[in-house]
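Model it.
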Amino acid sequence: MSLLDHPHTRYEKRFHKEGYDVIVGVDEVGRGAWAGPIIAGAVAMPLRPRIYGIRDSKQLSKKKREELAKRIKEIAVAWAIGIVSHSEIDAIGIGPANALAMKKSVELLPVEADYVLLDAFNIVGLQAKQSAIAHGDAMVYSIAAASIVAKVMRDDLMTEYHEQHPEYSFNTNMGYGTEAHQHALDAYGLTPIHRTSFHPMKTMV
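Modeled.
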């Protein structure tokens, strides 16, 4: 197996040795979706016990993600979710919305973060020290844990939206731009949760 199959704790151990106590992994989900919010998870994990099977959420089945999210929340030092709505995304743009969701998740933690590990993006205006790590969701244990918590939360929310708008199959496409989603847009038009600043929705406004 490759390194990407096994997220490591080298960053967490390094910063613990440097004197940082609460080391938080952050990741977001929903950046490229056509509908619904962008959601970020922030998770501070203990080095022991180590949860077997934590991976980038995209590498896991729905059932496995749900099992791991429950376990992560049980043993985490702290965890939180930051949500930026579809309307906020349309108002400020996806890049700023992505950063805002991550910043919110850190600020909503019940404890203060000493060091923040992020997947690819730094957060402007964050008080804690931070490091952006390429492929962090696949390589870094706490970031992978955050990706799982965020993904499960967003999937649950999109499943609730499916009950309101069953024609769009939000329970399976999670708001992303599938062929079936495009057909639903053509047939039924926009829902209140579509991102009208994104293509193809902006051509329908």
